[in-house]
Amino acid sequence: MKANPDPCSSAGILRVSRTKSQAKVFYNRISRVYDLLADRNEGPIRNAALDLLKALPGERVLEIGFGTGHVLLALAGAVGPTGKVLGIDLSDRMVKRSQRDLSAAGLLERCELRCCDASELPYAAESLDAVFMSFTLELFDTPEIPEVLSECRRALKPGGRMVVAGVSKEEPGNFWLRIFEWMHVHMPRFVDCRPIYVRRALEAAGFQVRASLRMSMWIPVEIVLGAKPGLGACVSP
C-alpha cells in the first residue's frame, strides 16, 4: 500500500525535474571521480549515520543508493559471515565499481547488489532488519518520497529500523541553504538533489523516530533513526 503524501512533510520542497534515465547517465559518468567530488563532505555524515544504525551480526541490511560502496564495505563487516548486505543503485557503473571493491576486500559473498529503482523494492515483505540511506532520499521527486519510504516500511520486519541522512530544509533562513536551492532550480543537471524534511518524512510514513542528529557540511543535514512499529520496536541509539 502506498503512503499518502503529508502536506506538512512536503510543504515548500522543490521538485526534481531530471528523469531517472538522465540521473543514471550522470552518475555513470561521474562514478570514477565521485569520491573526489563528495567524499570529504559526506564521509563524516555517513559515518555518524552508520553509528546510529548499529548493524549487527546476522542481520539483513539494505542500502539504497550505495554509490561507490563505502557503506557496503562497513555493513558487510558489521553483519559478519552469517548476515547479508543488500544494495540497490540506479547506476550500473556504481554497481560494478562496488562489486570490484567488495571482491578485493573478500566481502562480495556477503553482498547482493542490483541496479534498480527504490520505488518498487525487489524484496519480500518483512524480510529486512534495517535500511540505510545516505544523501539519496533527496534525489527522489517530492511525490516519490512517501512511496519510497512506504516500500522500505513494507520490506522491514516489525521493529526493523531505518536510518536516513539527508540535506535538511529545517533551517529555512540558512544562507547556504537558499544558495543550494537556487542552484537546484537553475542548474538541475548538476545539482539534482535539494533540501527535504527528513524527520517529518519518516514520521509521515509511519516510522517511530528514535533518534535524530543535526550536522552540517556547508549546508544543514539531518540524520534520523526510525523504527517500524511492532515487536522489538523499542530501538535505542
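(the above was protein one; protein two follows)
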Amino acid sequence: MLGIASGAILVPLNSTMLAVALPSVMTTFAVEPNDVAALVTLYLGAVTVALPASGSIGDRFGHRRAFLVGVLAFAVASLVAALAPTFAVLAVSRVFQAASGALVSTSSVALIRATAPADRRGAAFGLFDMLVSTSAAVGPLVGGLLVGAFDWRAMFLLAVPISIVAAVAVGLRAAPGARVASDAPDSAEPPVTPRAIDAPGLAILAGLLIALLVALRGGSAAPIAAIVAVIFLVVFVRQELQSPQPAVDPRLFVRRPFAAAVLGVLGATIVLHATLVIVPLLVQGLEHGDPESSGLVLLGISALGAVAAPFGGRLSDRVGRRPPVILGTVAMTAGLASLWLVAGSTTTLVLGLLLSVVGFGMGLAGSPRQLAALETVSPDRVGMAAGTYYTGRYLGGVLGASLAGLVLGRAVTADGVSLGFGVLTVVGVVLVVTSFGLAGGRPAGAAARA
C-alpha cells in the first residue's frame, strides 16, 4: 500500500503544488493569468487523453509493469520541467508528466483493488485515498515553502526522489510482470486473461478528447473543434460497440451506478481545480498575501479531505457506497454556497475554514464513489474501468481550470471570485442529485461484520 501510494501521490502533489507557484511562473516568463492557467489545463488535458490507453496497457501487460514505467518516466519529465528555459519547454514537460502520471493512476487503483479483500475494499480505498489526499493537502504548503525559500523550479525536483522510492518499493514486492490476479495471491478472484489493446478505439478517443479540449479552450477554433468532437464521438461509439474488447465500453454508461460515479467525479474535480486556480490568485492578488499564505489556505480543502477519506471508505463497507457520497456532496455544496456569499470580502482565516468544509465533503465521498464504479466490472476490465473513471476526473479538472480562467479573465476582482464560487455551488447541487444514482445496497461481507 505504501509503495503504491508513494507513486500515486506524484500526480496530485504536482498538481496542487503548482497552484501556489502560478504567480511566480507568471513573473518568470512574463505571461498573463490565462496563459499560466494553461499549465494546469495542459497537464490535466494530457492526462485525460492518456488515461484510457493507460488502463488498456495495464490490462494487457500487467499493472505492476505499467506502474514502474510510469513513475520512472515521471521522474525524467519532472527533471526537464525543473530545468525549463522557456515557458514552452515547461508546458511540454507538463504534458510528459501527465502521460506518465496516467500510467501510475490507473495501475495504482487496479493494484489496490486486487490486493484488498472484497469485504474490506472500502477501508483499503479509504486508506489509499487518505495517503494520496495527504499529498494533495501538503502540496500547497510544501509548494509555498519551496517557492518562498528557493523558487518554483525546486517543486519539480522534489518528484525525482519520490519516483525512485516508489519504483524500488513496488519493484521489489514481486515480479514486475505480475497482472491483477497474480498481484494478489490471496485474492479469491479467479485468474484473468490479458486483454488485447483496442488501438483503433484508443486513437479515435484521443482525437475526440483533443478536439473537445480545443473546444473548451475557446477562441476562433472552438466552434470547428466542437463539430469535430461530435463527429469523433459518433465514430468512437460505433467502433466500441462493434469491438470484442473495447478500450472504453459505452455499455458501461447504461449501468446507472457507473454513469453516476463518473458524472460525480467529473463535477467534483471541476470544483477542486477551479478552486485551486481561484484561491491563490485571490489571496495573493486581492488580499496581497504571499505564496506561504496561499498554501496554508488551500491546506484546508486537502487536509480535511485526507482526514475524511478513511471514514468514508469504512462507512461504505457497512452501509453501502451511496450514503457517504450523498452526505459528503451535501457538505461540499454547503461550503461552496458559503464561499459564494463571502469570498472577496472576508479574511484568509474564514476562507480557510470554509474550504475545509468543502474538502471534508470531498474526502467523505471520494473512495465510495470510485468503488461504485470499479465494482461494476470484472477483474480483467479493471484497468479499462479505472481509465474511464479517471478520464472523467481529469476532464473535470480541465473544465474547472478553464472555468476559473474564463471567470477571472485578465484581472482578479471580487465580483469575478464571487461569480466563480456561485457557479461551483450550482455544480454541487447537480452532484447531490446525481449521487442518488449510485448503488445503495450493503456490500458483500457487511452483514457478517455488523
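Reviewer note on protein two: The CA atoms of residues 275 and 404 lie 8 Å apart.
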